[in-house]
Amino acid sequence: MSLADLPVRLADVEDAAALLEGVIERTPMAHSRALSALIGSEVNLKAENLQRSGSFKVRGAYARMAKLTPEEKARGVVAASAGNHAQGVALAADRLGITARIYMPLGAALPKIAATQDHGAEVILHGSAVDEALVEAQRHAEETGAVFVHPFDHPDIVAGQGTLGLEILDQVPEVDTVITGVGGGGLLAGLAVAVKARAEQLGRPIRVIGVQAENAAAYPPSLAGDALVTLERVSTMADGIAVGKPGQLPFSIIKELADDVVTVSEDALAQALIFLLERNKLVVEPAGAVGVAALLDGRLQQAHPDLGNTVVLLSGGNIDPMLMLKVIQRGLSAAGRYMTIRMMLVDRPGELALISRIISERDANVTGVDHTRIGGSLSMGDVSITIDMETKGHEHCREVLRALEAEGYHPVVVH
């Protein structure tokens, strides 16, 4: 299928960009020296986590809602989201003077709920996942006549998200590869339309690659079978891309234009968040860090050895502080910089002091100790101890474990 035959074209993206003028921020590019050294070519990070409402979603939401007729605007809008689309719709509704009702799943992060309400939208908590909230939002639209603003499956949404592609090419005209996260597919589809059309004008190829969390990856099997696949279960910390079924419209574009869709593990996601905090001083939510995760774990380079000049889109920064605490601990553990061990001891004076000495002599820092004599699996005279410690990498962890084993202990790594 040619670019001219697609349901969303470059002209649609350019029209959306005109609508968004003065509404959104032109987010900056952040060069990553560490990632550049890792892949052997330049890597820049498109910091859309610094966008108004904290993510790219306002682009599509405003582009869709600004084109409503006066009669449609008067009926109000309804949407469903775990958080980012909710905030985008709420912000757009506030700017356009439209009443908005947003359905969010019961487990939605409190900061995302509060931010959506702060823009004046009514928030209704419904269902355990976004898919259930979507069904309820559509039911409300049918019953009341409110305009349903889909998070990804609409031409105006796709065109609005595609404006990021225009910005990326303006800021890094020499780009060879653009990498972004994928949920329902609106962002990847819009980016692909803009980037591939501009690449055709430039007369050179530019790759567009999507990344999904491996526990919420409906696109690889859908693309392989050329038909939409619905996942039975979705479980990932990346709630912004926790979508169980691709959108029909984005899928029709992605299968024609995207060069690849790869997956990353939860541990890789956690490490990517730590990396962005430490190296680039950027707060990014898990869904926004999947592209960096794909580079850090090396899967992308294996599939595409010559990525060339690369731009990774950091699509959002709306992370719940409670989730961030958990993610940081998981990321440090995955990197070998934090270790929790559990082992059995004989209950006698000096035993804990001996263990502490062994650990401190290996230059590890104990941050927490849980010591119990009571439990169904404990024999008389036994003690169960759990120790949290800061370490300096995987080899350092192994060194600490070997030292404990040399003294006759049997430590088990919890995480």
UniProtKB/TrEMBL annotation:
Keywords: Lyase, Pyridoxal phosphate
Pfam families assigned to the protein according to its UniProt record, in alphabetical order: PALP
Keyword NAD: no
GO BP of this protein: isoleucine biosynthetic process; L-serine catabolic process; L-threonine catabolic process
PROSITE patterns reported in the protein's UniProt record: ACT
Catalyzed reactions: L-threonine = 2-oxobutanoate + NH4(+)
GO function terms (MF aspect): L-serine ammonia-lyase activity; threonine deaminase activity
Keyword tRNA-binding appears in the UniProt entry: no
EC id: 4.3.1.19
Family: Belongs to the serine/threonine dehydratase family.
UniProt name for this protein: threonine ammonia-lyase
Source organism: Kocuria flava
